[in-house]
Amino acid sequence: MAHFYSKDDTHQAEQTSPDSDSAVTSGSPPGLSRRRKFLEMAVRGVAGGLIAPAGMELLSPSSVQAQTVISPKMALKELRRGNKRFVAVRMKSFDLDLAILRNHTSELQQPFAAVLSCADSRVPVELVFDQSIGQIFVTRVAGNVVTSEIIASLEYGVAVLGAKVIVVMGHGSCGAVDAAILGKEAPGQISALYPHIQPAIDQAGPDPLAVTKANARLQADLLRKASTVISGLLKEGKLLVLAAFYNIASGEVTFLDPDTDQDTDMNG
Ligand SMILES: [Zn+2]
Hints:
By secondary structure, the chain is an alpha/beta fold. The chain has a single domain (66-255), classed as Carbonic anhydrase (Beta-carbonic Anhydrase, Chain A), CATH 3.40.1050.10. 44% of the residues lie in helices and 10% in strands. The protein has helices at residues 10-15, 21-25, 30-42, 44-50, 72-87, 98-104, 125-128, 148-160, 175-182, 194-204, 208-226, 228-235; strands at 113-117, 136-140, 165-171, 240-246, 253-255. A 5-stranded mixed beta sheet has the order 2-1-3-4-5, sandwiched between helices.
């Protein structure tokens, strides 16, 4: 019964009408159908091309309104679910057929979420949220600090590509945070990161964990205020910007904003 773009059901997917939402959800156990439904909604344009009869061309980017059917809360919910799968080492993204995904995202990307994370090798963003090609728009820089280039990149991710949530994600044992706290001389331009992290040190004191969390919150706040594109989408309720902390030992992502660290309604 599994279709969409799972490895096992390419043939059935190709036989399915692009409009067959009901075929995706009806008759399936809720747990199984939910993620498929979300994926289909998240990448409706891509899926439309994917599940079109053989020979039918992909929908053009201008003809699809993929993420307009997804709310920011639904996007957040999928990230939460994906992280739970990652923590439990029960990932589903590996079941997706990467060849099909590559093919059908070659001219069109519609990521449902954007993430600003540290460059740390222990923070593999797509794995952490159990997502695959075309699903998360990732920007990375040591210390997950907001610069004008990062703002520009994330503005593209939300305003042009339609991502519904931006997560600014700090992590444990962050070398950039540790170095900024110590303030020691470093080779080359490493110390250029320090001024970006200093406001978090000023706020949270010398404890690395507290600084890391404060930094994620402050960088998220900077994004909300420094970008007119992002603040505009926030006002319209079309976007969420959230701070989060990634535990590199457990794999768990904790959302730091007080009203977001609980499960949200899928339809909310
Ligand atoms: Zn780091």
